[in-house]
Design brief:
alpha+beta, globular
């Protein structure tokens, strides 16, 4: 997979052709690595993104001169990844790696315990749920506020301070910020019957995340700038993906299979985004 991505970049920067082309070798390599992707049934864009970054991470660390043995290669889906992701020098972690801080607070004595976990993206709910009633959230900031607000957990925890089994509240906050922040908006539900949420969530072109960052982060907190959007047209069973990307000159383009057209920022803000990609201002 890494070789295929490398070939794509080489073609992009060296090939004088201005026409789009099919990523045949890239798709073929993905099919060989993950057989469930093979065929022409629709796949989930976010699941494919997770598969892709995992494979590039795996290939990069496997071939790195800094890795001494197969056992020392971090894995995205293992405890080893959690303990060693900070030290991973692969392109995936340099680009997308951050950390989430979970604060668990005892409802009896108020004692708090903080846990830091790695993240490569953030998945946000786009609706409020009260019983059987569902209402859309307004914008991306509303989604982040829902994600980072305190919630009472249903299970009992043993508090190390008061030594009682009590209910606790949990709060998530961003801690170490990644250079590129990848966000999934949860548009697909699989509760009993699968369904797709067509709510429009307003997405800012400049994202200020200070409100959602842990107090333990003492460094500067830059803004993020939107430069990529993936949206899904259709229903939960079938459909079509479109991608929107901004170039270094600030121009937006829509990618619809082999058809590439220039669009305005206002047009991008009107779409129902499924995945959003933000980059720190200092890297643009």
């Amino acid at each position: 997979m890494s070789c295929c991505v490398s070939d794509i970049y080489q073609d992009f920067f060296t090939n004088p052709a201005i026409l789009g082309y099919g990523l045949t070798s890239f798709i073929e390599a993905a099919w060989k690595v993950k057989r469930s992707l093979a065929g022409y049934s629709e796949q989930d864009a976010h699941e494919f993104w997770q598969f892709l970054v995992h494979q590039i991470h795996k290939n990069d660390t496997k071939n790195s001169k800094y890795i001494q043995s197969k056992e020392s290669t971090p894995s995205l889906d293992s405890q080893n990844f959690k303990s060693s992701n900070v030290h991973c020098d692969c392109i995936i972690h340099k680009t997308f790696s951050g950390t989430l801080e979970s604060t668990l607070t005892c409802s009896v004595c108020g004692q708090s315990r903080k846990i830091e976990d790695p993240m490569l993206d953030v998945s946000l709910e786009i609706q409020n749920k009260q019983g059987s009633e569902r209402t859309s959230l307004k914008d991306l900031h509303s989604c982040f506020r829902k994600y980072t607000r305190k919630e009472e957990l249903d299970v009992l925890y043993e508090c190390d301070s008061c030594e009682k089994k009590t209910r606790v509240t949990k709060r998530l906050r961003l801690n170490k910020l990644p250079p590129v922040l990848s966000i999934q908006l949860k548009r697909f539900e699989h509760i009993g019957v699968s369904s797709k949420l067509e709510y429009h969530i307003d997405i800012p072109t400049v994202l200020d995340v200070k409100e959602y960052v842990s107090e333990t982060n003492n460094g500067p907190i830059p803004n993020y700038e939107l430069f990529g959007v993936i949206c899904h047209l259709g229903n939960v069973n079938t459909g079509h993906y479109l991608a929107y990307a901004k170039n270094i000159n600030g121009a937006w383009f829509k990618f619809d299979d082999a058809t590439i057209t220039r669009v305005t920022e206002a047009e991008v803000k009107k779409v129902n985004g499924y995945m959003l990609v933000y980059c720190m201002n200092e890297y643009i």
